Amino acid sequence: MAAVDGAGVCRHCGRPLPESSSTGRKREYCDATCRSAARRERARRTATQSGDVRDPLTPSSRKANIDAVLTARAAALGTAAPLDAVAAARRLAELVDAVLRDSVDRARRAGHTWQEVGAVLGTTRQAAFQRFGRAVDPRTGAPMAPVRPGALEHAVALVGAVVEGRWADACADFDDAVAERLPPEQLAAAWAQVAGLVGRYERMGEPYAVQAGDYTVVNVPLHFEAGVRVARISYDDEGRVAGLFLLPSDGAS
Question: In percent, how much of the chain has pLDDT > 70?
């Protein structure tokens, strides 16, 4: 994209610049991604004008990933627009997860056991298999169905309701059996018991989902001031909560 000159807009993309309280050097780019892209564009123009045109060292398919890393780094330093930083961090997390899955696949093809993979990841072989393995249904010999769409998002929202003490909201999608065994007041008591064992809740880890037979199971690591627990939520084929457990950590991060 051609550079755009003008007060209050990014010189690379032309979008309005975020407001800044800084009294230092005038801001020219909206974030690190545009700054990096503009630098590459200047380098290409210079090379073209001088006749010194070379094949790029970085394939274009990877430049977006590099820009995401740069923007995430800028966010850590407080120089990126807040929402741009969130978007970049999400892209970076997705990239890291894809690379991790590919690396685990290559390790398995090379003959390494789930025990070895789990040791490298700091978890158990069962947890490593649940997250990265491809389970086969022993009833049919075929790979199990993919996890239910939306299960991860629903599980995160359910755990959020528990953390915020919205017990009725957390129980809203329980199936009949779970609703009978775990009414809102019982869920509140279970959460209080966990707090008594491991202290104040601090943050949520990266959730992951697996298909276990006819159920989609989502594991959500929960970090407390004195330990880690895992919220394990099972969904039936209708998307209702068929199980909810707060378990000791198996090494999930």
Answer: 73
DSSP symbol at 172: T
Q: What is the pLDDT of residues 160-169, one digit of tens each?
A: 999 999 999 9
**d(C-alpha 84, C-alpha 88), whole Å:** 6
pTM across the whole model: 0.53
Q: Tell me the C-alpha distance between 210 and 214, whole Å.
A: 11
Other C-beta atoms closer than 10 Å to the C-beta of 36 total 19
* Residues 6 or more apart in contact with residue 214 via CB below 8 angstroms: 236, 237
DSSP 3-state assignment of 77? coil
Q: CA distances (Å), 107 to each of 66, 96, 115, 121, 124, in order? A: 25, 16, 12, 12, 16
**What Rg, from alpha-carbon coordinates, does the chain have?**
24
